[in-house]
Every structure is written in structure tokens, then in C-alpha cells.
Specification:
2 copies of one chain form a homodimer. Chain A has 2 helices and 12 strands; from the N terminus they run H-E-E-E-E-E-E-E-E-E-E-E-E-H. Chain A is α+β, with helices and mostly antiparallel strands.
Chain lengths: ~160, ~160
């Protein structure tokens, strides 16, 4: 008779596992990047510390790109000349910092308006992947000026 | 003794429910709109069938808006003059249709490039909420021309 109780409990535990694994799978599909990871961002690798991935969403009327950073990955300080950029954070957590200001911690749903002619960087936090859509504000003769790395010393101080 | 088996099975079923409810809660937080629902879209209600919700994400350098449609909600046929629009689907499922073409079914992660001077509509599917970011391609003297409703007859035919 005891064995039947044990069977009942085992069935219960299996059901619990199935339920939670089902839940994990459901939430797992959400934590994947909404717009896809794309390819290793080889062309801009020299301006990044760590690996980033680039998926162009459209370049037909203007440039909209999905950028994914592995944990600790960040781009160098840089300046958009002409038109700025708008970041829409879709997954993970990271930072945006303008020169001379405190870094702003970013999470899913946050929006960053980067004005032109503003020295800044963005990237992942230490323990999380980070994904944002980058909308390039159109301008005539726009360009990006890439500057120095965000040093480990600066980065490691971030909370 | 049978009662112990029943207790075991009841425990199992409760565990199953707890597991799935846990999973639902976890996935529920993901299926919420990434950028927030915002307010009932009162100003444009006359150009929509059903309720939509509008959350401006930025208007500083250009207009980027999050638009949420309740099931069956869609906007009228309309034309963007000057600059078009780019849609980034973040949640749910819906449609995009250009005049004279088949409707395109949309889901999370899809991107739509709407050229200027193109008669079209977009909205939710019958049984799902639908959310997209709308990026307004900047132009000088851009405007939107609102046209006739998407009739129930047209809409109900969609697969």
C-alpha cells in the first residue's frame, strides 16, 4: 500500500517538473532576442571589446539594426555626427553613458535618445546579454567617429 | 489505502497546476508589451475600428511610437506622404496589407517597410492582441492621408 503512495508522490514530482520545464520553455522563447541575433559583428569588431552580433532589420528608407552584446561586451566611446541614434532595449541588461555623466543602467523596455555630437558608449552588463534596436536618425553626410575603449577600470566600477 | 493513492494523485494534480501557473506567470511577463501599452489612442480613434493604445517612445529627433491593438482592431486604409513608416512587431499577431495585394500575416520579430505614397492598413488578428513599434521616417512636409475603413467583409475573409 505504501508503494502506491510513493507512486502517487513520484507522479506528483514528475508533474511538477513537467509544469516547470513547460514554463521554462515558454519563458525561454521570450528571453530570446525578439528580432534575432544575426551574425557576429565582424566589420565593427575593432570598435568593440568582446563579441557583438548584428542583424540589419531594414536599410530601405533608413538604417534600423538589432545589436546583441555578450556579457561585458561594449563599444568604444564614439560620436554620431549629423544625426544621432535611438536605442530600444528589447532584452537583457546593459549601460549607456555620455562623457562626463554617470552611466545609465538599461533593461528591457528602456529607450535612449542619443543626440548627435555627443560622446558616449553602450554595452552589456557584467552578467547579462544585452540587446537593443538601434535606429539611425537620417541626416545628410552623417558619420560616426570612433574613439578610445571603455577601459576595464572604468567598466569594472559600474554598479 | 485507496484514499492514500487518491491523496497522492491530488498532490500530483496540484503540483501540475502550480507548475503550469508558474510557467504562465513567467511567460505572461514576456507576452506583455516590451515597451508598455500607454494610453487609449483617443486622438486617432476616428481612423481606427476598435480600441488601440499609443505610447510615444521618443519625439526628440524623430517620432517613434509603440502601438497596441486589441483583437480585431485595425486602422483605416491610409497613405504616408513624404516619408514612410517602419513597423517592428514586438508582441501578438496581426496583419499588414497594401492596396491590391494579399494581406501579410505578422508575428513577433517581423519587420515591415512601408514606403511613402503606398495605400495600406495594419492591425490585430481576430483572436490576438498585436503590438508594433512604428518608426516614422523623417521627411520635410510629411503627412498622413486617412482613407476608408477596412470593412468587416474584407477583414473577416483574412486567414
Amino acid at each position: 500500500m505504501k508503494s502506491r503512495v510513493i507512486v502517487g508522490i513520484v507522479v506528483g514530482v514528475i508533474c511538477l517538473l513537467v509544469g516547470f520545464i513547460g514554463g521554462k520553455i515558454m519563458s525561454g522563447t521570450c528571453s530570446n532576442s525578439t528580432f534575432g541575433k544575426g551574425e557576429l559583428n565582424v566589420n565593427y569588431a575593432k570598435y568593440f571589446k568582446g563579441n557583438s552580433y548584428l542583424k540589419p532589420l531594414t536599410t530601405e528608407q533608413m538604417g534600423v539594426f538589432n545589436v546583441t552584446f555578450e556579457p561585458k561586451c561594449r563599444n568604444n566611446w564614439h560620436i554620431h555626427h549629423g544625426g544621432g541614434q535611438i536605442l530600444l532595449v528589447t532584452d537583457g541588461s546593459g549601460y549607456y553613458q555620455e562623457w562626463g555623466k554617470e552611466a545609465r543602467k538599461l533593461k528591457k523596455g528602456d529607450v535612449v535618445n542619443i543626440p548627435p555630437e555627443t560622446k558616449h558608449w553602450h554595452g552589456a552588463s557584467k552578467d547579462s546579454w544585452f540587446t537593443h534596436v538601434a535606429i539611425e536618425v537620417p541626416s545628410t553626410n552623417g558619420s560616426t567617429e570612433w574613439l578610445e575603449e571603455v577601459s576595464d577600470e572604468e567598466y569594472d566600477k559600474l554598479k
